[in-house]
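Budget justification aside, the reviewers requested a transparent look at the raw inputs and outputs of the sequence design task funded under Objective 1. We therefore reproduce one unedited record. The lines immediately below are the structure tokens for a 310-residue chain.
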């Protein structure tokens, strides 16, 4: 009950901050979008798998929104989110069928290689993707009703906030299920699972697909918030950013990636408005968290948990 009350208060506070301070709406929407993608990375981290190329699914979700709007004429907000998430999950099934065979550095580097191939395709196929100029994303409609830009931004922000508990409950249920608990077992002793005839490949396949869907959902939200998609969304630095957010927030709970993403985005926004050396301020803040909060920022709200961020 106490945890539920804390989550409710946090969500209400985020909504109030966005409504009372309009310039925060975009920053918070983008932070939550990256939080969904980082949550996908955190799911894989539970199995000891680090994907240095998971931004490819973030980009797939973002470009899916652009293609669905441009080529299929789909403009409904819900339809775009569902369609982009489904396409990302399907991509996760296809790519994951190959990736889940590998572990450690091989898993990390193969994901990086595939993401860079996608980045190159998005940059070079100018007639389809707009090349390095990217693609414009048209303003969405809500159940067939068009709205002013300011209203769209507000609805997008509030809907994104409401998606946190909805998606969070699903992911939390998954992590507490036998499939979710098996991820930690894969990390600690995969050989023992194999001797017990536990289908490790199937366990990782489910995790990889869920991870891809979460990253795609985040990419779709980011595309609608920004109104434009670029190949850089699939670049390796974006993947590194998602890993950083997951570790910064902590993988001990579903809320961790959202806490880390919001902290990093707001620190960046505020620091950039104060000084040109904003990167130094962000770096100092990260060092403080890394040295003094081994369980990530989530550890501040759940101090009894002993699990480390990695």
């Amino acid at each position: 009950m106490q945890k539920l009350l804390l989550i409710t208060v946090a969500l209400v506070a985020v909504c109030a901050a966005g409504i009372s301070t309009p310039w925060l709406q975009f920053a918070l929407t983008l932070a939550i979008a990256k939080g969904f993608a980082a949550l996908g990375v955190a799911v894989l981290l539970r199995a000891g798998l680090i994907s240095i190329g998971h931004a490819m699914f973030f980009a797939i979700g973002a470009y899916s929104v652009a293609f669905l709007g441009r080529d299929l004429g789909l403009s409904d907000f819900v339809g775009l989110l569902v369609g982009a998430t489904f396409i990302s999950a399907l991509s996760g099934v296809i790519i994951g069928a190959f990736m889940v065979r590998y572990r450690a550095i091989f898993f990390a580097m193969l994901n990086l290689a595939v993401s860079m191939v996608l980045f190159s395709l998005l940059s070079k196929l100018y007639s389809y993707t707009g090349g390095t100029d990217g693609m414009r994303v048209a303003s969405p409609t809500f159940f067939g009703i068009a709205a002013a830009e300011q209203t769209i931004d507000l609805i997008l922000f509030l809907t994104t906030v409401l998606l946190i508990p909805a998606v969070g409950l699903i992911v939390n249920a998954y992590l507490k299920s036998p499939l979710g608990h098996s991820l930690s077992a894969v990390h600690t002793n995969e050989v023992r699972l194999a001797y017990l005839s536990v289908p490790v490949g199937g366990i990782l396949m489910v995790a990889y697909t869920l991870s891809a869907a979460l990253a795609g959902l985040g990419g779709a939200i980011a595309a609608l918030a920004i109104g434009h998609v670029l190949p850089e969304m699939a670049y390796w630095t974006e993947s590194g950013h998602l890993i950083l957010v997951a570790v910064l927030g902590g993988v001990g709970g579903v809320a961790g990636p959202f806490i880390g993403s919001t902290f990093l985005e707001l620190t960046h926004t505020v620091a950039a408005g104060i000084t040109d050396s904003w990167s130094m301020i962000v770096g100092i803040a990260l060092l403080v968290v890394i040295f003094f909060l081994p369980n990530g920022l989530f550890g501040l709200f759940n101090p009894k948990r002993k699990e480390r961020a990695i």
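DSSP finds 13 helices and two strands in the chain. The CA atoms of residues 149 and 240 lie 32 Å apart. Computational costs for records of this kind are itemized in the attached budget.
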